[in-house]
Amino acid sequence: MRQTSTGLRFTAAALSALTLGALLAGCSATESSHTIAPQTVITYRTNYTGPKYALVIGKLENKSPYMRGIFSDGTDRLGTQARQILMTHLSQTNRFNLLDRSNMDILAGEAELGGRTQNIQGGQVVVTGAVTEFGRRETGTHAMGGLLGKSKKQTAYAKVSISIVDVTTSQVVYSVQGAGEVNLSNQEVLGFGSSAGYDATLADKVLNLAMIEAVNRLVEGLEAGQWKPQ
After folding, report:
1. What contacts 162, CB < 8 A, 6 or more positions away?
2. CA–CA separation, 171 and 164 (whole Å)
3. How far apart are the C-alpha atoms of 222 and 51, rounded to whole Å?
4. What are phi and psi of 173, to 5 degrees?
5. Is residue 52 very low, low, confident or very high in pLDDT (cuts 50, 70, 90)?
6. Residue 218, Cα to own-chain centre: how many angstroms?
7. How far apart are CA 157 and CA 140, in angstroms?
8. Which residue has better confidence, 194 or 160?
């Protein structure tokens, strides 16, 4: 049976449509999103009937070599980040009357605009401290030069130290440390397996983890009666 030219044109057009459809399907973009529950202190949303001391967050600095080299611009970004994390977790313990001293100018301006007189409360204790250890490393192995398999492990480590200081006597009444480590591993065998590039969020995660540990210990000492303003 002889196929007509019209039939050939129809077949070619159908094939072109199918090919175009397959290409479009292969180039389609997908998007997904979901929320992640953040890590919190042990006492988050728990009841408390003990004393709530008026607490002010003082200096929190980066004392580790991380981000303090010759190419640093002098801005203590790690210390600023640690301070914000500490403020968040202390607030979530529901054990302190936390006072903000970092926005005094803004608060005064807003009070003036509203025609209100400020009645600033004085703190009983100040929490101060430092990021004492911080860093990350990457290790890996290769079997037969990487032909048979390879593995990679990214590790971030942090340690923080915080102290409670009595504002009246300037006495350090309690000190704690918190440390954490976060690992990300992947392994490939004969070209199969998982792979992971550089994950910059590991540094943020481990700093948060170390601060949670320090705040948990601080609250444990408070509830055990191991410290209070003089």
Report:
1. 60, 86, 127, 128, 129, 175, 176, 177, 178, 214, 215, 218
2. 8
3. 9
4. -95, -15
5. very high
6. 20
7. 17
8. 160
125: number of Cβ within 10 Å: 23
What pLDDT band is residue 141 in, cutting at 50, 70 and 90?
low
Q: Two tokens at 81? A: 């980040």
Place of tokens 């009444």: 173
Does 24 fall in a domain?
A: no
Kindly state whether residue 23 falls inside one of the protein's structural domains.
no
d(CA 211, CA 40): 10
CA distance 229 to 93: 18
Read off the pLDDT of each residue in 190-201 and give the average, rounded to a whole number: 55
For residue 27, the 8-state DSSP code is T
Q: Please answer whether residues 79 and 62 qualify as being in contact, where contact means their C-beta atoms are separated by less than 8 angstroms.
A: yes
CB contact set of 18 (below 8 Å; sequence gap of 6+): none
- 187 lies in some domain: yes
CATH number for position 196: 3.40.50.10610
**Position 12 in a domain:** no
Given this model, what pLDDT does residue 187 score? 56
Torsion of CA 144, 150, 154, 155, to 10 degrees: -60
pLDDT tens sequence across 33-49 = 989 888 999 999 899 99
Which tokens go with 19? 């090919």
Query: Rounded to whole angstroms, how far apart are CA atoms 116 and 209?
Result: 40
